[in-house]
Amino acid sequence: MPKILQNSSQANHAVEILHVALEYGSATLGGLGAVTTQMLKAQSVFKISDQQVFNPSIITPYYKKLYSYKTLQHATTINHLYEAKTVASIIYLYEESNKRHYLIEPDPRYNHMFDIYSVNDLYNNLEASSSIDRLKYFNSATAAFVHNQTSCPIVFLHDWQTALVPKLLKEVHHNHRARSIFVVHVSNLDYGGFNTEMLQGIGLKFDNKVQLLKAIGLYESDKIVAVSQQFMQECLTERSGIAELEYLRKLFVLAYIKDNLFGITNGFDHNKFNPIGRLIPDYSNIVASKHKLKLEIIHKLCHSTDWKINPDLPVIFYVGRYSPEKGVDTFEQLIRIVRDRAIFFAVGRGKTERIASLIEKHSRKTSNIFITNDEEEQNTLGMRMRACAVMTFIPSHREACGLVPMEAFANGSLCITSGVGGLKDSVKQLKYQDKDNTTGNAFIYEDQESGDNPDLAKAVDQALKCWNSLSISQKNSIHLRLMEESKQYDWLAPAGAILQYYDICRQLKTEPVTKDSNHEVVQCKKLQPA
């Protein structure tokens, strides 16, 4: 029988951290899966002191179609409620490089609960179960697993899909030992609203007819983390005429006044995304290396078609989900703006009608345009396109943190971006009046929810004119500067997020809070470690 969670008095005074998430490893839709995977990796090698270390683990559904681990160990079997019946779920354990991954296999009566037929179906697979059925089962099983442990872990709950866990621990298991941290990754418009009747059968009682799962997480958890400073300020200060959003804002305000809310920007795996020594072997001439890589990509894409890519044009790159909040409605305008001026590569997940139409109309049909949602093409070309890009397009309408610009800088790429929300924590307007001594890293435009955006057109035009006016030496200098500056966002940077994540339970403090007559926060100051 493998060891489950170590007792905190053992394992060199290990601090137990159990992440709870739907996305991890190969089961990922976008940024959340990358964050949980990289955060766990970083925590597994980071120590608080010579006497105290992190002992991290994660629990997810057992997506058999996505996981091909060779050695799964049977960790335990737990009993919990689902559909008002006691069910038995098997917990498997996979261990690798000090990382422990627990996987929940459902009771045989619900053996299709976590079936995944494509990576795009993590949240809703109609052939197996509705989204809320999956979430109820996963939350119920996870709470029972946490309760059955002899140690007292810090439970990291990754957004509203896991928000029922602390409520289940308190109300069903009467467990007040485990401390919970609710990590908010998405804007308040994504709040997980369900009719109360859909949440029955796992032992919980509710007063209202409709439940917001994000609100439950905010109310029931011990601490709350917004994944960037700017996003935290939005959660506190952006008022709305929508009742649900205003209710969530007031919960954020209440948590902040109680010193239970913190804004801590996520990190990223710098070694994974910095291409020096791998895709870009020549450190002395980044421009030449990017151009060579671009030629290789063009050869792969154009060898069997009449469609052409002009190798002399700079590459603008998009990577991310093809969802409305990511600003994919801007693609059509961008394609018109960059015609015969730049190459546009886009890779991402999502099968919306808009993306299908764009692919049908432009990809490998309009000169210099390639858009794909094909998994194999993403895996084959994605990292190479990142590395060869001189600019990365980030047109988000909403963004809690924004890992894409950090990854772009690691590849020496400037950004063209709306700069909304958490993007403000990393993107700064490029100042290039003195082209040998530039500062900043992006061309930022004012966001517009629909229609052609004249400010976007202005920013793209400015970016291309600026880039084309630089000498090779100046371009190299910018690439190298961005690569160097990107190190500050690594998980293991000196002021790294890992230590801060632990410290929010005991050491962080806030500056004085300014309140109005209604005791609402009107000015949000940045948080500083004690």
Q: Can you walk through the features of this model?
A:
The protein has 530 residues and is α/β, with parallel strands linked by helices. It is 32% helix and 19% strand. The chain contains 15 helices and 19 strands. It has helices at 31-45, 131-147, 164-171, 213-220, 229-237, 243-257, 270-273, 286-302, 331-338, 353-361, 375-388, 403-410, 454-469, 472-485, 497-503, and strands at 15-20, 54-61, 73-82, 85-96, 99-105, 154-158, 179-184, 193-195, 210-212, 223-226, 261-263, 315-321, 343-349, 369-372, 391-394, 414-417, 442-444, 514-515, 521-523. The strands form four sheets. The chain has a nine-stranded mixed beta sheet with strand order 3-4-5-2-1-6-7-10-11, with helices on both faces. Strand 3 and strand 4 form a beta hairpin. The chain is globular, with a radius of gyration of 24 Å. The model is unreliable at 6-11, 125-129 and 506-530 (pLDDT under 50).
